[in-house]
Amino acid sequence: MDGRLSGGENVTLDFRHHPAVTLAEVAEAAGVGESTVSRVLRDHGSFSKKTRDRVMEAVERLGYVPNRIAGTLASAGSRLVAFVIPSLSNIVFPDVLRGASTVLEENQHQAVFSVTDYDPEREEALVAAMLAWRPTAVMLAGFEHSERTLKMLRASGCRVVELLDLDGTALDLAVGYSNRAAGRASAEFLLKRGYRRIGYVGHDLDRDTRAGKRFAGLSEALGAAGAPLADREIYAGGSSVESGRLGLERLLARRRDLDAVYFSNDDMALGGYFHCLAHGISVPSQLAIFGYNGLDIGRVTPQPLSTIRTPRVATGRIAAELVVTNAPPQVVDLGFELVEGATA
Amino acid sequence: MDGRLSGGENVTLDFRHHPAVTLAEVAEAAGVGESTVSRVLRDHGSFSKKTRDRVMEAVERLGYVPNRIAGTLASAGSRLVAFVIPSLSNIVFPDVLRGASTVLEENQHQAVFSVTDYDPEREEALVAAMLAWRPTAVMLAGFEHSERTLKMLRASGCRVVELLDLDGTALDLAVGYSNRAAGRASAEFLLKRGYRRIGYVGHDLDRDTRAGKRFAGLSEALGAAGAPLADREIYAGGSSVESGRLGLERLLARRRDLDAVYFSNDDMALGGYFHCLAHGISVPSQLAIFGYNGLDIGRVTPQPLSTIRTPRVATGRIAAELVVTNAPPQVVDLGFELVEGATA
DNA sequence: ATGAAAGCGCTAACAG
DNA sequence: CTGTTAGCGCTTTCAT
């Protein structure tokens, strides 16, 4: 009646696709009930040492791997933490993931992620997809989300952590630093150093709203000091060393009188710095350069890059800690540190 | 009898923790059977347009989000792809994830990941944890895994993709390029350019076995050409720009006669290059520098870095495509490209 | 200390 | 075209 009875061919196939061992099979093999196996495996409830050994022996022998899909369905939390991040090219997000993954792994949680490419609609779709896994928490970049995203998140009942931004209203938890304040601090530093004709080279501001907030803080502080932004060059698309170089080249073609340029981040700033090195523009006497992020590479260039160091790894770590400890709603300001460097 | 009956306070709590809407509730609200809702949602099987509208209206109104945990348990695959990667600091892995995530998202798969920090024991534990989610596939770096890891993987029945290496035996699928061949190609290039006193600056070779294979390929080719490796400086720990700089400094302190240095990757090589810039060592006339990976930044430095460009994003993309199409076991060699640059 | 049984929320036959 | 029903593999009372 069953194909398996009719030939060796199917036996072979059955070996290959052997369905995973189940808890019931382990129970059977150990000669105990299913609930006993479950108790032993989770070390919860009581059982004799003898039973424990029998069960573990069977687990070992059969190569049993518990099925967390079933486990999660039967019990409470999934111990899944979902990251919906804008990009993996921008080093910021791998750094955040790195900080979080250590903590998550130590606490038997798993990280799931997807990449929005800075698109709010994709974010919406991806959040929905993530929510289908009933994660313990979902981590997002910043505070700008579509109405529907916010609604889904609120309705989900899972923890929400908004990362890397402080300029806005948190849904639940928020961990990061103020980009607006960072922009302002950069402006004040440059002004203090005596620069007055300051330009800006940046990448797409509408999509990367945190870069937009830094720009706003910068412009605001420069304006307030009576030294408004001299000019700006916006490079469509993501940030990169190459677009920083190109952006500075274009900006200088228009404005030879600039004495300092603020870049939307260190990648861009390094591009600008390399442009200066290659074209004999002496830094900072002819032109000062200032970045954002405090990448390690900026400390090793012939002149250390002047920038703002941000606690990206710590952001991930703290966010994960708040989630695994189920901390009450709160906003954690990790601050940032201005690195004077030698380029400004 | 129940605390909830005694006061308004608990009612509020109940609102907050309102359990997620279930398919049964949607069916109820729409006045249809559960399987009908299921069919409509998955657009599978047949149903009238009228029914469809009624169901969708209820879904919308209740804010229903399907539970994939339950769905997966009831049906077949999880559509989860597990990445067990050594590091997130090394740009290689974010790049691979980036390539894969695009394809996975387009095909309604989710990426789960964890980080081994190049430790085979952690890898073993993390693979086990991943397997508990019954992923469609698990993606690993390279071919070096513990016996138990291999056993679990084989027994799991899920697809296994080994990434970024070709020098070894694949379990199922493998996508990448030969690190040994890359090391050899680098040596041949340097020799062809006339360099004979070649040194090496690298990071931990035992943990990063792919870097070890490049080193082996390099040494082998240099030895075969009668110009064996002059000296080497191994920096414990991961690769970084700073350790590249420091490594070169130390190496040169011992061997002033070197005419070229091969670095374990571009990060290290950039550190070396910056050291030369800062100390007036002219590149490549006094000292040639050669890296590995072909990072974008190396194309924008005052002198473009001589290196080998590797298809990291494509590795992730192809790996994901093989998985979502359930391709037969195979090894895909994506090759690499030697970039002549100006530093060697 | 242990087993039996009732689900968790969904999908997949199988009837109608 | 649609509803009913039997699980998926586990956890969790509840008895014993």
From TrEMBL, chains A, B:
Residues 21-75 form the HTH lacI-type domain. GO terms for molecular function: DNA-binding transcription factor activity; transcription cis-regulatory region binding. InterPro entries: HTH_LacI, LacI/GalR-like_sensor, Lambda_DNA-bd_dom_sf, Peripla_BP_I. Keywords: DNA-binding, Transcription, Transcription regulation. PROSITE patterns: HTH_LACI_1 (PS00356), HTH_LACI_2 (PS50932). Pfam families: LacI, Peripla_BP_3. PANTHER family: LACI-RELATED TRANSCRIPTIONAL REPRESSOR, TRANSCRIPTIONAL REGULATOR. This is LacI family DNA-binding transcriptional regulator. It comes from Sinorhizobium terangae.
